[in-house]
Amino acid sequence: MDGDVNIIVATKAFGMGIDKENVRYVIHYQIPGSLEDYYQEAGRAGRDGQTSYAILLYHTSDLRIQQYFIDQAIPKILWLKRCWTSFAARLRLRVT
Fold first, then answer.
1. Which partner for 42 in 7, 53, 54, 81 could form a disulfide, CB atoms 3.0-4.6 Å apart?
2. pTM of the model as a whole
3. Main-chain dihedrals φ then ψ at residue 25, nearest 5 degrees
4. Is residue 31 predicted with pLDDT exceeding 80?
5. Burial of 74 by CB count in 10 Å (0-12 exposed, 13-18 middle, 19+ buried)?
């Protein structure tokens, strides 16, 4: 933190704890999970107002991984219908 080291390599979890003003580059080796994550992580560079760069390195397989996580986060229509039917039956609602 006192400037003796020119390069810091960090995981996402550790990197978010880096609070140095003179970071010039933030290099992502994979696509972050969200635009908010990218914005927060890239924002570690240039806190002293000097020119800095955020660089994103990725492979197309990274996109498939992120798409998988998105797909898993959204409930499937059949599952929602089953939940609603079960809920309606417990409340004796008419399901159409």
1. 54
2. 0.60
3. -135, 135
4. yes
5. exposed
